[in-house]
Amino acid sequence: xxxxxxxxxxxxxxxxxxxxxxxxxxIAAAEGVANTLGQLPDFLVDSRxxxxxxxxxxxxxxxxxxxxxxxxxxxxxxxxxxPRQLSFVPWRAGEELESNRYGIPEPVCTEDDLIxxxxxxxxxxxxxxxxxxxxxxxxxxGYYDASFSFLRERTEALSPLLVGIAxxxxxxxAIKAEQWDVKLDYIATExxxxxxxxxxx
Length: 201
Known about the structure:
By secondary structure, this protein is of the alpha/beta class. It has helices at 3-19, 23-37, 41-45, 62-71, 143-147, and strands at residues 48-50, 74-82, 85-90, 97-99, 105-107, 122-125, 129-130, 136-137, 161-165, 186-188, 193-195. The model has no long low-confidence stretch (mean pLDDT 92).
């Protein structure tokens, strides 16, 4: 079995695990993650926060978006802007969206609205699975790894901060890192904020 086959099977297992969560658990987790992110000082003051539109059982960010709006911080959603490349677009609740090639809602915008990955302060990333060393199992498209490849060789948290958003139930003991993987700086679950650099020294 190849590494790709192993990851494909793992993704299917993790999707099943995530879909098994009840509506009550999802709502509670959304509130919990909003509180957990409050433990990250940068999240309370940085100007430009990138997130995602939750699909397929991903942990929803509506509670987070509401807090950012109250504090006057800018919330951005990703938009595909090239081969395996994401840009980000400022978005507020109620503004127009359109589906991309994967059926994921993206902000309707002009090219002038696009913000480069390097220009956001914090990125909240969706995932299927994670470990405490900052490695994630995504959906296999490679968009986040390619878009933030400029952070791959870092040995400490730099801007933009990459924060994985997950249910605690998505934790794995260890994920074998591939050469293209970009490590997360933090992981926020409904239970805790995990510093992925704490054992890196």
